[in-house]
Design goal:
7 strands; 4 domains; Cytochrome Bc1 Complex, Chain D, domain 2; single chain
Length: 491
């Protein structure tokens, strides 16, 4: 009925009828606003829509957001409304969350970009609202940092307030500085990363936000990154540290020091750390590297082709030793099936409550990537009702061999750029301008469509193989019991 009324007003061009409707009930206002917006010469003004962006009626608020979203010419008038909202001192947490979402949606408007930059420098604006503005910047989806933001991020990076500092770093992680940016944030980020007074998570965020990544790693940073690889640390920190080390130019001495961590790290970190050794030509480093891999708990989770590719720069003596590793990793499907059957038959009775602790704990870190109910990550499939659709054997296979099958909409995708760089991840978003892949925990790669040479389905899951090597037999049994018992969400 609502749809019919809107179309009737549009088709008849009844501006007076539509305008009279916007002074009535919430339903009538919604009908009138949409009709005026869609009809020729409707004459709808930004001032009539802006106050409704904070309406208590969800449908009316959604209509206002939708209408304002396709009127870039309203940017200036909307900025006045948002300025008043950001100056408010009595916003509830829910109102702040809604305001942040709206600012992120309208951040492509230059006037809103300038407003967000100005808010950071305004001493009258509450600190919590300034942090809100930073979070809106980080979730804006812009492909280049606006000049008005860059100037204000410098003092934000020097803030003594940890929430402000985290939010400012998040902006630089999410929005690239761009070619026209004249501000170098590297020194400010390195200062944060080197300071032991900040939590490790903040220091890691700062390192990962450095434009172009680290080149050389000084002793203080190397020590911090090495400590972050500790299996007791949260997975998101371990993964971030491994990613930084994999891309940095480490000295042979640092590579030898890092060898001590390889036997202890998980399968995700171990796979990333292979890249750290791919650039070395040292025979001594290479032989020690091969020996450390063979001792690694997560060794069976490595892919044979990746190991072989990372040994190509080493001398023949190292490559010969490496071939022995590759042969051990080249397990065929029959071997996988036999291992699955053997392990399935030897598992003990599991306990659901202990399994929940394993799911949420740092060793398996399942909750980092998977949600159950309203808790958990969203890198992998939602497991709220996994016990209804998967047998215990299926669940065990997905843990041991995650690349054996893929859940729909979580299939891996390989993207090759025009300069030959290859990225693998889960397709998160695809627009006419860019493609966004999720490549790991809290990590995504945004590639302009014009720079893409090829996209094809992948065969290797983002979830690393070898998770069972991190768990005892009882812990694996408990985890399976928890997943199998998860049929109606978290209890």
């Amino acid at each position: 009925m609502e749809h019919a009324f809107i179309h009737a007003l549009i088709d008849t061009g009844d501006r007076d009828g539509a305008r009279s409707a916007i002074s009535g009930s919430a339903l009538r206002r919604r009908i009138g606003l949409i009709a005026l917006d869609q009809m020729d010469d409707g004459g709808l003004k930004a001032a009539e829509v802006a106050p409704l962006l904070s309406s208590v009626d969800p449908a009316l608020k959604d209509a206002a957001v939708w209408i304002a979203g396709h009127h870039p010419e309203w940017g200036g008038e909307l900025s006045g409304y948002f300025r008043d909202r950001l100056a408010a001192t009595d916003l509830s947490d829910a109102a702040r969350g809604e305001l942040q979402k709206q600012l992120a949606q309208f951040a492509r408007h230059v006037a809103i970009q300038e407003l967000l930059g100005a808010i950071l420098a305004d001493p009258v604006v509450p600190r919590a609202n300034q942090e809100l503005a930073l979070r809106a910047m980080a979730s804006s989806g812009l492909r280049e940092l606006p000049p008005s933001w860059g100037l204000q991020l410098v003092p934000a990076l020097a803030s003594e307030r940890e929430p402000m500092l985290r939010a400012a770093i998040a902006v630089l992680r999410a929005v690239p500085p761009g070619k026209t940016n004249t501000i170098d944030f590297s020194e400010a980020l390195l200062r944060i990363a080197r300071s032991p007074s900040y939590p490790t998570s903040v220091r890691l965020d700062a390192v990962t936000a450095i434009p172009g990544g680290l080149t050389a790693v000084d002793p203080l940073l190397f020590e911090m990154l090495g400590e972050a690889l500790d299996p007791k640390r949260p997975l998101i920190e371990r993964d971030a540290a491994a990613k930084v080390l994999s891309r940095a130019s480490l000295t042979d001495a640092q590579l030898r020091q890092l060898l001590g961590s390889l036997p202890l790290v998980g399968p995700l970190e171990l796979t990333r750390l292979l890249d750290a050794y791919a650039r070395s030509h040292s025979e001594e480093v290479g032989l020690q590297f091969v020996a450390a891999l063979k001792r690694a708990k997560a060794f069976t989770g490595l892919r044979a082709d990746l190991v072989a590719a990372r040994l190509t720069n080493f001398p023949p003596t190292v490559q010969a030793k490496g071939r022995e590793l590759v042969e051990l990793l080249n397990t065929d499907s029959a071997g996988q099936k036999a291992h699955l059957e053997e392990l399935s038959g030897s598992l003990k009775r599991g306990d659901i409550r202990r399994g929940q602790a394993v799911f949420n704990g740092p060793k398996a870190a399942c909750a980092t990537c998977h949600a159950i109910g309203y808790l958990g990550g969203h890198v992998g499939p939602d497991l709220t009702k996994i016990g209804e659709v998967r047998t215990e054997r299926d669940l065990l296979e997905s843990i041991l061999y995650p690349s054996a099958s893929f859940v729909r909409n979580f299939e891996p995708m390989i993207l090759v750029t025009r300069d030959g760089e290859e990225q693998s991840g889960i397709l998160q978003r695809e627009t006419a301008d860019e493609v966004v892949l999720v490549t790991g925990v809290g990590a995504e790669v945004r590639t302009p469509r014009a720079n893409i040479a090829e996209m094809r389905p992948g065969t290797v899951s983002v979830m690393p193989q070898g998770l069972e090597t991190q768990l005892s037999g009882q812990e694996l049994s408990d985890l399976l019991a928890f997943l199998k018992g998860t049929k109606w969400g978290a209890q």
